[in-house]
């Protein structure tokens, strides 16, 4: 019991001392604790400031990403518009060249039909001429045969004449008629032959030429000469040259578009491509007050 009481005394003493120590806590310790609390407050503010800066940096990075995506979408949309415009151009130009091809072949068909008609008429005229000549000879032969048969019958009947005087008279008549008979005056050779080989045809070479028909060879593209090109007084002078001399060039075709956008080609909400045909020289001047930039689509040459 004494030991337990002593321990209780010790414990009680310790609790009392702890309470007194808490009440009699030195000022320096309280100040130190207060300073620690102030440091913790400044640390929280610093963390919030750092987080705000990081968020601003992330926002700027995100805005750059959004801007990049928007620009890329704009480029893709412009490219899609260009593809759609090019697709329409392919369809329109294909229809044009097919129409030109039909026109050229119709011209060939027309020439062939005319030549066929002309040559057929020549054959028919030759046929009519020969037929007429042969028909005339047939008529002459028929008349000669008819006269000859009558004379032959008269001569046969004359053989039965008994009276010498009548017989002599008949004989003289027969002789005179024979002398004047057409059977002895007509030609027994056909005036014309049935040969028509002089009107035969052989279009082997022409057929080979037709089979060798092909599209025009594509000449080398003209080269724009930037040194000689000039922009002045709301006008653009475009100068070009051929990489190789070609005397088969008939004329040039220039395609351009007026725009106020200096960048990738745009189709939507802008003017369409314009075409200038039959340019005989190697330069051309475009003028226009709304022409800040002139985009040259292509420069073609036609043989």
TrEMBL record:
Residues 1-23 are annotated as: Disordered. InterPro entries: Bbox_C, COS_domain, E3_ligase_FN3/SPRY, FN3_sf, Ig-like_fold. The keyword Cell wall biogenesis/degradation does not apply. Keywords: Coiled coil. Residues 159-216 form the COS domain. It comes from the Eukaryota. This is Fibronectin type III and SPRY domain containing 1 like. It comes from Chelydra serpentina.
């Amino acid at each position: 019991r004494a030991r337990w009481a002593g321990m209780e005394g010790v414990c009680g003493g310790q609790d009392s001392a702890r309470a007194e120590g808490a009440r009699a806590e030195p000022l320096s310790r309280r100040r130190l604790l207060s300073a620690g609390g102030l440091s913790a407050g400044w640390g929280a503010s610093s963390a919030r400031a750092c987080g705000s800066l990081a968020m601003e940096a992330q926002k700027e990075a995100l805005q750059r990403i959004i801007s990049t995506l928007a620009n890329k979408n704009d480029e893709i949309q412009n490219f899609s518009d260009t593809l759609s415009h090019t697709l329409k151009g392919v369809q329109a130009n294909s229809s044009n060249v097919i129409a030109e091809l039909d026109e050229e072949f119709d011209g060939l068909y027309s020439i062939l039909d005319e030549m066929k008609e002309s040559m057929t008429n020549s054959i028919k005229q030759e046929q009519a001429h020969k037929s007429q000549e042969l028909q005339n000879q047939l008529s002459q032969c028929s008349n000669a045969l008819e006269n000859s048969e009558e004379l032959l019958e008269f001569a046969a009947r004359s053989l039965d004449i008994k009276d010498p005087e009548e017989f002599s008279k008949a004989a003289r008549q027969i002789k005179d008629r024979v002398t004047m008979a057409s059977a002895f005056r007509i030609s027994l050779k056909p005036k014309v032959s049935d040969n028509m080989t002089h009107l035969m045809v052989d279009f082997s070479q022409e057929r080979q030429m037709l089979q060798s028909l092909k599209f025009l060879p594509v000449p080398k593209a003209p080269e724009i000469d930037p040194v000689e090109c000039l922009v002045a007084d709301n006008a653009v002078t475009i100068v070009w040259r051929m990489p190789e001399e070609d005397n088969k060039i008939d004329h040039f075709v220039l395609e351009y578009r007026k725009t106020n956008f200096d960048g990738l080609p745009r189709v939507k909400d802008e003017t369409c491509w314009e075409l200038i045909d039959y340019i005989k020289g190697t330069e051309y001047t475009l003028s226009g007050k709304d022409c800040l930039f002139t985009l040259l689509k292509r420069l073609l040459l036609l043989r």
